[in-house]
Specification:
The complex is a heterodimer of chains A (280) and B (290). Chain A is mainly α. Chain A has two domains: 53 residues, no CATH class; 210 residues, MetI-like fold (Orthogonal Bundle), CATH 1.10.3720. Chain A has 14 helices and no strands. In chain A, helix 1 packs across helix 13 and helix 4 runs parallel beside helix 7. Chain A starts with 10 loop residues before the first helix and ends in a 6-residue tail after the last helix. By secondary structure, chain B is mainly α. Chain B has a single domain, classed as MetI-like (MetI-like fold, Orthogonal Bundle). The chains are: A mainly alpha (280), B mainly alpha (290).
Chain lengths: 280, 290
C-alpha cells in the first residue's frame, strides 16, 4: 500500500481530535491540580489562603519557607529522612541483590514468597513487636532501628525489581566467565552486577522513595532526634489553628525531591512499578 | 574457600536476607500471634501471661471493631472499583500515538510517588468547607457543596477520592504496558472483518487485557485495604469514629490505649481478612480462567 499522502482531514476527524485533547486535558488537570494548589498556596499569607475567590495574581511571600526552615528544625528532619532513606536502600541492596540473584538462578522461590509477604502483612503487625524489641534494646529514636524498619519497605521493592531483571540476563554470560576460571563470586561482582545498572537504579529509587514517604514506622520508632519529614509535617496540624501556608511549604519541600527523582528516571520507574503485573 | 562458596552459593547468597527475614518479619509475626493470646496492656503493669483466645472472644462484642470491618470494605471497594474503571478507560483512551504522550506518562507517575502525608495535607486544605477550593468551584457551577472529610456521611467517599487520585495512575500505567504487549493479529483480523471500535474493545482488547487488569486489581486491593497514612493524617479515624478502618483501630488500640494484647488479636484477624481477599481474587481468577 502506498504511504498515505497528507490530505485534508474530514471535519469528523478534526472534531474527534479536539474532543480527545479536551478529555486528556481534563484528566491531566485532575491529576495536577493538587500539586499546583500546594505550590500556589505555599507562597501565600494565611489571609490570602482563606480568601475565596482566590487571588490568582498576588505578591508571593517566602515567609512560609523561612518559617519552616528556621523555627521548625525542618533541616534536621530532612537530613534524618536522607540518612534513613539512603541507609535502608544501601543495606536493602546489600541483602537484596544476592538474594534476588539466588531466586532468579537457583529458583529459590520460597525466599521470594517470604519477602513478598511483607507486602501483604499490615505494617502495624511489625510495628508493635519492633517497638517493644527496640525499647528493650534502648534503640528507640536511633538511626539503626529506623533503617532496619525501613528495610522492610526497601527490600521487597529491590527483590521485586531484580528477580525478573536477573532472569533476563542470559546464563551464558556467567558460564563463559566460569569457564575462564572465575569463581561464582567473581562472576557475580565483575560480570553480572556491572551490567545490572538499570535494574539496580530502578530498585534503589523505588526503595528510597517509599522509605522517604513512609509515615507509620517513623511516627512510633522516632521521637525527637530521628524524626523524619512526613512525621514533622503531620505535627504541623497538632495545633489549634492550622498554619496552612507553612504546611504547604513543608509539603512542597518534601515532595519536590521525590518528584524530581521520579521524573528523571521515569522510564525505569514505570518499568519497576509495573514489573510482574503484565506477565500475569 | 572459593570452592565452598561455589558449592553452596544457592544458600549463601540469600543467607543475609534470610536472617533479616527471620529477625524482622518472622519474629514480629509470631510475636504478634503470641501477644494476641495475652491480656498485655501497659496500664495493667504486669508481665503478659498466656490466656488463650479471650481477646478473640471479645472481638465480636466490640462494636467499634465490628464497625471498622464494614468501613474498611466500604472504603476499599469504593476506591478500587473507581480506580479500575477509570484506569482501564483512561488507558484505552491514551493507547494511541499522539503528541505529549511521554509528558503525560511522567505526570501519571507523580501522584503515586508523592509523599502521602503531604498529599493528604493538600486535600485537607482543598476540602475545607467554607474557604476550600473544591466547594468554591462547585458553588461557581451551581452544584451542591459538600462537607467532605468533616462529616460522618461523606468522610469515607472523600477519603476514597484521595486514594483514587493517588492510585488510578498505577492502573493506567500497568494497563498501558499490558496493551503494548498484546499481539497484533487479532486487531488486524477485526479491522478486516469490519468491527467497530467499540466491538474491538469489547470483544478483543478487554478479554486479552483481563489478566493484566486482574493482577493490577489484586495489587490495589491488597494496598487499599491497608490504607493508613491518608486516613490517619486527615481524620485520625474521625469525625467520631466514622472513618476508623481496621488498620486505624489497631493503631489506636496499640499506641493510644497501649492494649498490645488486644490490638494484636485485631491484627491477626485483619491479616486473615487481607490474606483471604488476596486468595479469593487469585482463585476466582484461576477458576474463571481470566
Amino acid at each position: 500500500m502506498a504511504k498515505p499522502q497528507p490530505k485534508k482531514r474530514t471535519a469528523a476527524q478534526v472534531l474527534g481530535d479536539v474532543i480527545f485533547y479536551v478529555v486528556v486535558l481534563i484528566i491531566l488537570g485532575f491529576f495536577l491540580a493538587p500539586f499546583l494548589w500546594m505550590v500556589f498556596n505555599s507562597f501565600k499569607t494565611p489571609l490570602q489562603i482563606a480568601k475565596m475567590p482566590p487571588d490568582w495574581i498576588f505578591t508571593p511571600t517566602l515567609a512560609n519557607y523561612q518559617n519552616v526552615f528556621s523555627s521548625q528544625k525542618f533541616g534536621n528532619y530532612l537530613w534524618n529522612s536522607i540518612v534513613i532513606g539512603a541507609g535502608s536502600t544501601f543495606f536493602g541492596l546489600v541483602l537484596g541483590l544476592p538474594a534476588a540473584y539466588a531466586i532468579a538462578r537457583y529458583k529459590q522461590y520460597g525466599i521470594a514468597t517470604a519477602i513478598l509477604i511483607a507486602r501483604i502483612v499490615p505494617g502495624i503487625t511489625f510495628l508493635i513487636p519492633l517497638f517493644i524489641l527496640f525499647r528493650q534494646l534502648q534503640m528507640i529514636d536511633t538511626y539503626q532501628s529506623l533503617i532496619l524498619a525501613h528495610m522492610l519497605v526497601a527490600l521487597p521493592f529491590i527483590v521485586w525489581v531484580m528477580v525478573p531483571f536477573f532472569e533476563s540476563i542470559p546464563q551464558e554470560l556467567e558460564e563463559a566467565a566460569r569457564v575462564d576460571g572465575a569463581s561464582i563470586l567473581q562472576a557475580f561482582f565483575q560480570i553480572i552486577l556491572p551490567i545490572s545498572g538499570p535494574g539496580i537504579v530502578t530498585g534503589a529509587i523505588l526503595a528510597f522513595v517509599f522509605s522517604w514517604n513512609n509515615f507509620m514506622f517513623s511516627i512510633q520508632l522516632a521521637t525527637s532526634n530521628t524524626k523524619t519529614v512526613p512525621v514533622a509535617i503531620y505535627n504541623f496540624i497538632g495545633y489549634a489553628q492550622i498554619d496552612w501556608g507553612g504546611l504547604m511549604a513543608a509539603a512542597v519541600t518534601i515532595t519536590l525531591p521525590v518528584l524530581v527523582l521520579a521524573l528523571f528516571t521515569q522510564r525505569y520507574v514505570i518499568r519497576g512499578l509495573t514489573a510482574g503485573a503484565v506477565k500475569g | 574457600m572459593s570452592n565452598f562458596l561455589d558449592r553452596n552459593v544457592k544458600w549463601l547468597f540469600p543467607l543475609p536476607a534470610i536472617l533479616f527475614i527471620l529477625v524482622m518479619m518472622v519474629f514480629p509475626i509470631l510475636y504478634t500471634v503470641w501477644n494476641s493470646m495475652t491480656p498485655w496492656s501497659i496500664s495493667a503493669g504486669r508481665p503478659p501471661t498466656f490466656f488463650g483466645l479471650e481477646n478473640y472472644q471479645k472481638l465480636p462484642d466490640d462494636s467499634r471493631f465490628v464497625a471498622s470491618i464494614g468501613r474498611t470494605f466500604y472504603f476499599t471497594i469504593l476506591a478500587v472499583s473507581l480506580e479500575v474503571i477509570l484506569g482501564v478507560a483512561i488507558a484505552l483512551l491514551l493507547n494511541r500515538e499522539f503528541r505529549f504522550k511521554r509528558i503525560i506518562n511522567s505526570i501519571m507517575l507523580l501522584p503515586m510517588m508523592a509523599t502521602p502525608v503531604a498529599i493528604a495535607m493538600v486535600w485537607l486544605l482543598m476540602y475545607v468547607p467554607t474557604t476550600g477550593i473544591i466547594n468554591f468551584v462547585l458553588r461557581a457551577f451551581g452544584l451542591p457543596e459538600g462537607l467532605w472529610v468533616y462529616n460522618a456521611q461523606s468522610v469515607i467517599p472523600a477519603l476514597a477520592l484521595v486514594d483514587v487520585w493517588e492510585w488510578t495512575p498505577m492502573i493506567i500505567l500497568i494497563c498501558l504496558a499490558g496493551l503494548t504487549a498484546l499481539p497484533h493479529d487479532p486487531f488486524e483480523a477485526a479491522v478486516v472483518d469490519g468491527a467497530s471500535t467499540w466491538q474491538t474493545i469489547r470483544y478483543i482488547t478487554l478479554p486479552m487485557l483481563m489478566p493484566t487488569i486482574s493482577v493490577a486489581t489484586l495489587l490495589r486491593l491488597i494496598d487499599a485495604i491497608k490504607t493508613f497514612d491518608i486516613i490517619y493524617t486527615m481524620t485520625q479515624g474521625g469525625p467520631g469514629f466514622t472513618s476508623e478502618t481496621i488498620n486505624i483501630y489497631a493503631f489506636v488500640q496499640s499506641f493510644q490505649y497501649f492494649n498490645f494484647g488486644y490490638a494484636s488479636s485485631v491484627l491477626v484477624v485483619f491479616f486473615a481478612v487481607v490474606l483471604s481477599v488476596s486468595l479469593l481474587v487469585t482463585y476466582s481468577r484461576r477458576s474463571l480462567e481470566i
